[in-house]
Amino acid sequence: MNADDNDQQSDPIQEARRKFLKIAIAALTFTSGVVLGLPFIRTIYRSAPVKKANWSEVAKLTALPQDRPVSIKFPTLSEDAFVRGHVVRSVWVIKHSETALSVFSPVCTHLGCYFAWNQAAERFECPCHASVFSIDGKVLGGPAPRPLDLLSHKVENNTLFVRWEEFKSGVTEKIQV
Amino acid sequence: MPVIDSVWKWFTDRWPFYPLKHLLLDEDIPGGASYAYTLGSSILAVIGLQVATGIIQLFYFAPTIDHAYDSVSYLRTEVPFGWLVHNLHYWGANIMVVLVALHMMRVYIWGAYKSQLTWLIGIGLLVTTMALTFTGAPLIWDMKGYWAGEVGSSITGTAPVFGGIMKKILRGGETMGQLTLTRFSAIHIVILVPALFFLIAAHVASFRTSGIVGSWNREKRKQIGLFWPDQVFKDTVVLSIVIFILLTLSVYYPAPFTGPADPSNTTYLPKPEWNFLFLYQALKYFKGPFETIGTAGVPTALIGLLALLPFIDRRPERNPALRPIAMLCLALYAGTILTLTIIGYLSPGYAEMPATPAKTASQQPPGAVAASAPSAPSSNAGEMPGAKLFKSVGCIACHSIHGSGGSVGPDLSEEKLKGRNRVWLVRQIRDPRAGNPNSIMPAFTTLSDRQVNDLADYLLSQTPAPTGTEKTSAQSAAAFPEKTPPVPETPVKKSVEAAAASEEKLPGHAAYTIGDAENGAVLFKERCASCHGPEGKGGVLNPGSHDGTVPALSPIDSLFFSTDPRYFAKNIDIYIQHGSVPEGTAPLLKMLPFGDSNALTQEEIANLEAYILSLNKIDRAALIDPGMQPLTFFYLAAAFFAAVTLILGGIWNNKYRHRCE
Which of A39, B92, B111, B220 has the maximum number of C-beta atoms within 10 A of its C-beta? Predict the structure, then answer.
């Protein structure tokens, strides 16, 4: 490097002193950089804790058709960082019998688009990258890495309750986020 | 590494790295490097820190009036090291003003302003720095920031000719609101920060063009030092100290939570940031038609003097010992600002109040007031003793007079007009159920005859307000018709019934907001202590209830307590919002729905909750996810700094010392 290309270079005492000064500058700058930089990175790179979802009332059982997926919208109370309020969510519900139901998250397991039911072809189709799922959620085609995500649900007094949860998209395992 | 070398050559062939490096680093210092010259680069580094912490805060900040405060609180308590980022930004802003002031004084004493243009650009930087602190504070939309923005923009509005336009542009309208916050954040982030960068570049370029001024001593000037690495080393040492001071302040003196902005809460005493105190104090000396001189004239004159300085003093002499008049002017200028700042700091608040009623009258518990208030001479000579009692005994918690007070009971602004007399009022205070068996008003049997009379005097002295309150009294007249007893039978009963099913009720906004416990204490004395006892210690009788007394809040029932301030706040919030009826046959006192009835604002409830938590030794603003406890972090950082310093000392001693002697 040519930091010393001036007339002072000839003085060996000054040269040695300045060599030390450069080491000190580097060391002190590095110290401040680490002490401040590491916490700053931690502040930006964090994953919010998984929130425990509450049961939300979704539908009366009698109103549901037999063996056909229906999309149902329902309000949930959401606490998202510092914002809190009612958010309307949707799920796909299939009533097999009065006691057996499947509740699918409406989010495609590939990249998080919301998929739709194609009644003519009797399959779920994602509009984004053409992932295709059967009525029981199995991958029939497209890039989806895992079957549709089932949501936990319960039936009380002829009413369907669902726990709204979200899962990591694009991976083969079902990981709650 | 030949690959790196060739890439480097490719880059420097196409980009002026060496010319720039030469311009920035290779500079002679007549008289050698000095710690006195380190202030400018410290400012530059703190600006860098402000930019970094500012950007990180923007990753979490929501510039809306209903979420700005909560978003900053969230960053500060629930994001790892968010507390550090926010506190560094807060203290960085403060220390920046100090460094700028010191830097200017240094340049003045060395006579370096004689290079003229560098000094003028520097004044531009000073104004930009002040503007940054002014526009930064309101972004949190807390009590302190709200009032700083409100008063600051009002002052701008008093400037002649352009004042009104400036204020309108700043606020996005005539009043403070959402557009004010949006504009303050836009001005702070995308106007002032780029302006600062531009001025810094101009400042450094101008300074490099005219050369480093160096020592004024002719003999000493013959000895030439180098900017790199001699001066940069000293800069780095000072900068490390500045960063360490910032860390210490951030850990030991974090920025206060002054509670969400609530202009209707009159128990808060607003005051400007310390770096505007001198202007605020100067303003007080210009009254009536002269106010414009204080608001616009003084700052213009102060800045104008600085700008004219290098043109007034054009002698080349730079030795301060030979510039006695210049040194006297500096002492006068800095002394005036310092004195005004100190007077401003010691003065009570924006409005020149003798003392706040909230802090004097309601300081004492009801029992103590009963003994002392009537006999003690009133601090406010003009105020009736009943007026103080109205607040301290707790009437104000449910009743309002001319717009201030609770809305649970009827408005009492026009008792005389309604045909009430002393006998009726005394009976109503002593035994509310004599007039209306369903009354929920507590019987104030502990008051002395004299106190009851004072209260009656005060109520009967009220004359109807000319306008404004007429509407409220008309509303209350409609809600509580003349002929029926004055107690709001139907509305309260309804809310009490609803509150019985409080398990199904949800917490309000207040539960999610970090309030100001200090203000909560003032509110508590005024609005809650009459039933829950002074400092929530309980003991107030509640005949007809299962417990016999109103529940104490300190210590609070373990059912509500939680070490997590968020859950604790939610637990008590449901009761403050929606009220509740104590178990028992016919409880005399009931918890009123302060939130549902708007008797308290959500901001006030948040402050009260912070206070009630503090009574139970829980900090509402406790760090939920600090990343690392501030103290642990501080010790680690200190150890790291110490270790590096020791190692450097060792290297110097063993390898370089003998070579340099």
Answer: B92
Residues B389-395: what's their mean pLDDT?
A: 76
How far apart, in whole angstroms, are the C-alpha atoms of residue B28 and residue B32? 8
Per-residue model confidence (pLDDT) at position B198: 98
Here the tokens at position B156 are 């701008």
Alpha-carbon gap, residue A51 to A177, rounded angstroms = 8
Q: What pLDDT score was predicted for residue B368?
A: 36
* Neighboring chain B residues of A7 at a CB cutoff of 8 Å: none
Q: What angle do CA B643, B648, B650 make, to 5 degrees?
A: 95
Please count the CA atoms within 13 angstroms of the CA of B197 that sit on its side-chain side: 9
What distance in Å separates the CA atoms of residue B416 and residue B414, rounded to the nearest whole number? 5
A43 to chain B, minimum CA–CA distance in Å?
5
| Tens digit of pLDDT at every position of chain A (177 positions) | 344 444 444 688 888 899 999 999 999 999 999 999 999 999 999 877 777 788 999 999 998 999 999 999 999 988 889 998 889 999 999 999 888 999 999 999 999 999 999 999 999 999 999 999 999 999 999 999 999 999 999 999 999 999 999 999 999 999 988
Low-confidence winner among A146-160, B57-71, B461-475, B491-505 (lowest mean pLDDT):
B491-505
Chain A nearest-CA distance from B227, in A, is 11
Mean pLDDT of chain B: 85
Token duo for residue A30: 């590095």
In this complex, the residue of A22, A32, A40 whose CB is nearest that of residue B229 is: A22
What percent of chain A is helix, strand and coil (3-state, nearest 5)? Answer: 25, 35, 45
Question: How many other C-beta atoms lie within 10 A of the C-beta of residue B186?
Answer: 14
Closest of B207, B13, B656, B265 to residue A16, by C-alpha:
B656
φ and ψ at residue B380, rounded to 5 degrees:
-100, 105
Q: Which is it for the CA torsion B368, B373, B374, B375, positive or negative?
A: positive
Beta bridge partners of A94: A102
Q: Which of B5, B20, B79 should one mutate to test binding to chain A, selecting the residue with the greatest count of A CBs within 10 A?
A: B79
DSSP, collapsed to helix, strand or coil, labels residue B629 as coil
Buried b (16+ CB within 10 A) or exposed e, B71-99: bbbbbbbbbbbbbbbbbbbbbbbbbbbeb
| DSSP assigned state of A96 | S
In this predicted structure, the answer to whether residue B370 has a pLDDT above a threshold of 50 is no
Domains of chain B, earliest start first? 36-216+225-271 (1.20.810.10), 362-479 (1.10.760.10), 496-615 (1.10.760.10)
Higher pLDDT, A4 or B206: B206
Non-local (6+) Cβ contacts of A76 within 8 A are A53, A54, A56, A86, A87, A88, A89, A164
Q: Cis link prior to B507 (omega < 30° from 0)?
A: no
pTM of the predicted protein model: 0.81
Q: Which of B25, B74, B239 sits opposite A82 (nearest CB)?
A: B74
Interface test with A, best of B12, B41, B85 (most A CBs within 10 A): B85
Q: Do B52 and A34 touch (CB under 8 A)?
A: no
CA distance A27 to chain B (A): 7
How crowded is residue B37: how many other Cβ atoms within 10 Å of its Cβ? Answer: 25
Residues near B424 by beta carbon (within 8 Å), at least 6 away in sequence: B435
Angle between the N-to-C axes of helices B565-578 and B602-615, in degrees from 0 to 180, rounded to the nearest 10: 130
- Under the banding of pLDDT at 50, 70 and 90, the label for residue B308 is very high
- Look up the ipTM and state it: 0.88
Q: Does the structure show a pLDDT above 60 at B331?
A: yes
* Percent residues over pLDDT 90 in chain B: 54
Burial of A85: CB neighbours in 10 Å, binned 0-12, 13-18, 19+: exposed
